[in-house]
Amino acid sequence: MVQTMPVNLESLTNLAKRRGFVYPSQELYGGLGAVYDFGPLGTMLKNNIRAAFIKRFVQEREDVVLVDTAVLTRQDVLRASGHEQSFSDPLVECTVCHQRFRADEKVPEAKDHEHKLAEAKQFNLMFATHVGATKEAGSLAYLRPETAQGMFVNFKQVLDTTRIKVPFGIAQVGKSFRNEITTGEFLFRVREFEIAELEYFVKPGTQDKVFTYWIEQWEQFFIDYGIKKENLKRHVHPKETLSHYSKGTTDLLFQFPMGLKELAGVANRGDYDLAQHEKATGTTLQFFDEQEKKAYRPFVIEPTFGLERAFLAFLTEAYKEYPYGRGSDAAVGIPTSPSGERRNEEQEIVLHLDPRLAPYKVAVFPLVKKEKLPEIAQKLVQELRKQWFVQYDESGSIGRRYRRADEIGTPWCITVDFDTQKDEAVTIRDRDTMKQERVKLNKVSDWIAKKLER
Ligand code: ATP
């Protein structure tokens, strides 16, 4: 076995920036605190995580529908939901340097002075704005701090327009905004992020069983897409740390490079939200049970995770640094110096991402830029691109091209070589095992489809 080195946050940030996964947003102007942009590869990876969520929890199920609700949210919605009053963190300010910290977290030491902390105040995390041309009362709105309210205010619409019955879920993936006090751990805590979650409506009395079911589903999702079981841990919130709407929350913690921290969570919101919106609007938000001939207000179990934290978790798990020369040089065609020694390169990075999450599924290389090899390779690329994102690369040695592809997690590299014209076959090399297989040109797409099938 080749030795790998442990990952730190800096290595991930560097790779993410260097290869175009994630850039600090608006860096040209000096950046915007804890706001990031996803570059070409990052956008593909994030899309694939979103797609995996939708496939597993909507497409493959009978009982979940998907919505996409507005970010701009009326003040009265977030007042009824309790966010205007309670969606805040305790904030302390140092009277010397005026830096602000969360009072419920450890305050980092300053280099040149001792912090003199003023009394803690509650700081509301919501971003406020105005809708319309005038800033009069009544025009105040918020950028939603969570996607959940979009599902609650559409509860009746979904019941009325679909044939779904309790128990059922409404899923959504969408942007949320929080003016976080402490940031600085790359994608872990950002001010603009995407939440993937479900509001799962159940008959009162059945919530505990459903709660356990969703914790298991959530864990299994991350495990199936590459997170090692031993890197996940459940954390049951004590009463004091529950959100204002929660009757019970279990977080799923992951071993991030900076420590064991929340990746996802499952909350029992009871009937809190529907009851609050009922009270505020006078509209009944209940489900009529045909069998029991009575109406009731369902309880809600909410499994949730942030796409950015999932992105960071998958990267953390996938990232491996190997000493230079991971594969046999001869096997991968890495050129050696005239003395026969390896060139002096420090390390090779491989992202062992689940193929379903990998930005590119395949890279196609002509061995050389002559003898019609590029034409054959391009033809194959065009065919494969009908189904997947495929990269074409003809520059540098094959070893170098393998390493470029490994570094961004491409699971398979296909080489078109001199024999291809004779045997109508290509060599497919596996990113993780580095094993090579000869596959007929007309069987390549079936071969890939089979590998991606799960
Ligand atoms: P934390 O305690 O870390 O602030 P939270 O308990 O407030 O998180 P939730 O309100 O449950 O988080 O949000 C749902 C999910 O959204 C979290 O499990 C997390 O994955 C993600 N998330 C929350 N806040 C952020 C953020 N500022 N940046 C990135 N992801 C976030």
Q: Quick summary of this structure?
A:
The chain is an alpha+beta fold.
What topology emerges from the helices and strands here?
Blueprint: H1 9-18, E1 22-24, E2 36-38, H2 40-59, E3 64-66, E4 72-74, H3 75-80, H4 83-86, E5 88-93, E6 100-102, E7 121-124, E8 127-130, E9 140-143, H5 148-152, H6 155-161, E10 168-177, E11 192-202, H7 207-224, E12 232-236, E13 248-256, E14 259-270, H8 272-281, E15 287-289, E16 294-296, E17 299-306, H9 307-318, E18 319-323, H10 329-332, E19 347-351, E20 362-366, H11 373-384, E21 390-392, H12 398-407, E22 412-416, H13 420-423, E23 425-430, E24 436-440, H14 444-452
Parallel strand pairs: 3-10, 20-21, 20-22
Antiparallel strand pairs: 1-2, 4-9, 5-6, 5-7, 8-9, 10-11, 11-17, 12-13, 13-14, 14-17, 15-16, 18-19, 22-23, 23-24
Helix pairs in contact: 2-9
Adenosine-5'-triphosphate (ATP) binds at residues 146, 178, 180, 189-190, 193, 195, 262-265, 304-306, 308-309.
